[in-house]
Amino acid sequence: MTKIIVPVSGGKDSQACLKMAVLEHGAENVTGLFCDTKFEHPLTYKHIETMRDLYGARIDTVCGGDVLSSCLENKRFPSGTGRFCTDKLKIRETRIYLKSHAETIGAAQVWYGMRTDESAERAKRYQYRDPDDLHDPHDVIANYPKYLGKMGIMFRLPIVDWTEKEVLDYLAGEQNPLYSQGFKRVGCFPCLASGDKWKIKAFEHDEFGKSQQIKVKLVEEETGKSVYTSGIGFKYDNDMQGCLICAI
After folding, report:
1. What 3-state DSSP class applies to 218?
2. What's the number of CA atoms in the CB half-sphere (13 Å) around residue 31?
3. CA–CA separation, 112 vs 141, rounded Å?
4. Cis status, amide bond into 177, omega within 30 of 0
5. What is the 3-state secondary structure (H, E, C) of 125-143?
6. Cα distance between residue 90 and residue 65, in whole Å
7. Rounded to whole angstroms, how far apart are CA atoms 73 and 92?
8. CB count, 10 Å around CB of 169?
9. Mean of pLDDT values over 108-118
10. What pLDDT does 13 receive?
């Protein structure tokens, strides 16, 4: 039986992939993979546990560090063109996990929740991908090494042609509650590579958001850099939602 690995962030798209994989292949053949950045909202951590209960699949958690420590190491905050946090805390940890899986268990399909409906960048990159096709990991995300494909790790984009409405309809209310609280994407809270209005919205959202802002201010003081791309806050002409990979 095919082994399926689904990288999950607590977001709706990866959850739809996890649900689909379990329904099609059985929970015993599906494993979720959560890369913990130590910067998620408590509701997201709780939702990872909820998904375990909902679908009966094992969800492994890996952690390669934390977002703010990465900012201190790089002496700056991540940006749309400099997503060091994604590279270190998500892609690197997933690569290590997949390589270990291939060496100890064998081949596997990795179901990623990219959708062309998400952004112009993704529409251009994935518009010709068939949701049933299998791809070499390096051909889907260039940061993944070519050797993974040779080891039997193949990527599939099962909801690449779905709309946001189709995803939400499929989940039927089972998605992370942060969506109903006004957040379009779920991942780091906030994503430090996102537009300023989303950072401010997160910081002002609740007590946890306020505590996150305090931590971020300490990093600002240490690095001499502002977390805001505009330098002062609101930047409504930039609706960029961050790294996207984190929030799949």
Report:
1. helix
2. 15
3. 10
4. no
5. HHCCCCCCCCECHHHHCCC
6. 10
7. 16
8. 12
9. 95
10. 97
pLDDT tens sequence across 64-81: 999 999 999 999 999 877
Neighbours of 191 (CB within 10 A): 27
Question: CA 209 to CA 146: how far, in whole Å?
Answer: 39
- Distances in Å between the Cα of 229 and the Cα atoms of 36, 56, 133, 235, 242 are 25, 41, 38, 8, 12
Task: Please list, in sequence order, all residues whose beta carbon lies within 8 angstroms of the beta carbon of residue 215, skipping any fewer than 6 positions away.
Answer: 68
For the CA atoms of the chain, what is the radius of gyration?
A: 18
* Contact by Cβ (8 Å): 30, 151: no
Angle subtended at Cα 156 by Cα 144 and Cα 248, rounded to the nearest 5 degrees: 75
Q: Does residue 112 contact residue 245 with C-beta atoms inside 8 Å? A: no
Q: Minimal CA–CA distance to 82: which of 92, 93, 71, 72?
A: 71
What is the torsional sign of CA 119, 229, 203, 224?
A: positive
Tens of pLDDT, residue by residue over 178-210, are: 999 999 989 999 999 999 999 999 999 999 999
User: How many of the other CB atoms lie within 10 Å of CB of 238?
Assistant: 15
Q: How far apart, in Å, are the Cα atoms of 156 and each of 14, 89, 130, 191, 194?
A: 12, 22, 9, 25, 26
Amino acid found at 78: P
